[in-house]
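Input/output pair, single chain:
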Amino acid sequence: MLLAGLSAGALGTAAAATAPRVTPETYFTNDTQIPGAGYYHAPFRGFFPLPYNHFDPTRKMYFYGGQWGPEPHRSIVNLSAPTPEAARQAEAVRTDNIPRSGFGSTSRSHFVPS
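Output:
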């Protein structure tokens, strides 16, 4: 069990580290999340702090493209590339591409007697 948990954690970290760069030529689907940049809203070609068509029960409104509306946004666009400015901003604030080295490693193991 412990080994499976460590393996899953290592794979999750590896997957995050290999997320695609955000460029105007990279296509993303709705709600692709880039850590630090937010969620991609394909019809609006940008990243936002909440998922596309997120419903807030307190406001009784939906969030899309940086605004709130009384009904979910409807669009046939569910895949697009970000604008050059949105790509630049997302790359500047993303938190999953920080080079890591030095103190820790998940490749080591320790025996803990039971």
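The longest strand covers residues 38-41. Strands lie at 28-29, 33-34, 38-41, 46-48, 54-56, 61-64, 67-69, 79-80.
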